[in-house]
Amino acid sequence: MTKETNPDLLTVENVLNKFTDKYCYLVDVLGNNGDELIKIGTRRALEKAGLKVSYSYDDADVIVFRGGAYINDLYPQAVTKVADILSKMPKCPVIIFPQSYIFFNGDITQLFSDRTKATYLFARERRSLKILSELAFPPSVKLGIDHDTALCLKDDPLVHSLQQKSTDGHILIVEREDVEGTSGFVHKPFPVPFVKKLFPADFRMNVKRAIRKSRWVKNTKTDYAKTALEEVRNRWSDIDGLPVISADISDQGTATFEEFCSLIANAAVVVTNRLHVGILSAMLGKRTLLREGSYHKISGVYEYSLASMPHVELIK
After folding, report:
1. Entry pTM
2. pLDDT tens-digit profile of 58-71?
3. Which residues pair with 144 in a beta bridge?
């Protein structure tokens, strides 16, 4: 992990080193398959720094929130959970791993207004750091910038294993289909409440995945998929004739984590506005075309962490 040119800014590594041999309470908020990559990267970073994970508030010397993009106005339930945990541990230092931030109606300074112990708040790209730096945090809050935590896995056995099994078997198009998507399409919960009472969660999830998987070919007819395919075919002639898979594989209702990894590892080309589809694709050396989502997250991470990779490009 690298340090920004401003010497006063912190990196995750130098903050974690303050807590070597200490116990941390690791907080997970929300989750999709991309977040699974962040979770694994977070645990690797903690292990490297010599922190031990506690499963109890009482035994923790520091609270660690994994990175992502959930402390913002798009996910009020997640912000409420963060506030609740902070209120339960008012005298414990806090490390919030690299995030992207966007605020439409307010900010997050009130989350930390009563805290006297150090809070280390990290952005994962410069635009989010600028947003944070313009807020009126109490003196206990220290700002930093570092790479998305999933990038800790670049030399990890998980990525090496996927590289060994990698093929160029299909074109993969992944369009985000939730509140951060750009098409306006969002998957809705199953409309019949009694289904939850009749069938266990695992069964419902498997049925949901099977239904969505049956639509992967139809999904190639969407405007997003059509423009993505046109972009790919204009650039590379060697992919003609490859099958096309178009699905929001970051959504755990569409693909398992193992399927998520396999579909990326076996792609010849990946086009996506899902950040961690792009990050895993980049780490695997795949031809990767990133498209911006609903705010600056993807372009920001691309500029800060991925722009030096010749096989990765940000497109309109």
Report:
1. 0.90
2. 889 999 999 999 99
3. 10, 122
